[in-house]
Amino acid sequence: MQIPEEGLWPLIAGAAGAALSLQFIEGMTWKQKGVMTITGTLSAALLTTPLMEWVGMPASWSNGMSFLVGLFSWAAVGGVMHTLQKADWWGLIQDVVRRIFNRGS
Known about the structure:
mainly alpha, 4 helices, 0% strand, flat
């Protein structure tokens, strides 16, 4: 499998952004740093083009956008994970069940 040259630079930029993001997080093991770098790189590779199309950015900005997606992907993931951990899942399930069974009433 060959990576086209135009697809390689955004991948490198995303990896650089993901690696730079590690400078702002302390107390991580090498394994955690490796996982964060890989997932940040993959996020940049998979999400940059759809995000640019959604926002309407010109294609010439793909390297910079890849860098930013790699840099900030863990901030977004961290926010989502924090929200999911703090959610009242039992209350949510109860509300859904009440709404389902109270429809006919």
